[in-house]
Amino acid sequence: MNPVLVDVRHLTTYFPILGGVIRKPTGYVHAVEDISFQIREQETFPLVGESGCGKSTTGRSILRLIEPTSGEVFFDGTKLQDVSPETMRKMRRDMQLIFQNPYASLNPRMTVRRLLEEPLQVHMSLSQADMNREVSWIAHAVGLNEEQLDRYPHQFSGG
Known about the structure:
CATH superfamily of the largest domain: P-loop containing nucleotide triphosphate hydrolases
CATH class of the largest domain: Alpha Beta
Largest sheet: 4 strands, antiparallel
Structural class: alpha+beta
CATH architecture of the largest domain: 3-Layer(aba) Sandwich
Number of helices: 5
Shape: globular
Strand order of the largest sheet: 2-1-3-4
């Protein structure tokens, strides 16, 4: 069994409802309420639920794009609430949320190949040959064949 990469413990995220002239909290929206799960290395973890149930807020809270109200998140053994904002920004290079809606998540003017190359160019120094190998490996890992790399996001079915 692979080691745990992400460990979420009792994650809770509330948003204040501000009211009155001085805009003080009059209540809270309970966006994420006491969730716990683990993601192991080399594991795909789908977080599913109806619209508005807190999936995106959960992801953003894990990455500390939104500060959680309570709970703990560990990434590769490091407690994310204990790291500085600068360290967190660097750590996000090794983390990624993937939202289901390709029209909101992917640039429609870029091919799948280009979409896969872009983060590799930003975060790694690779020769073109190494870049091509890495993109081919990623495509194969998610079930795409070489010819699909030159398609645009809208050319895939939503199923």
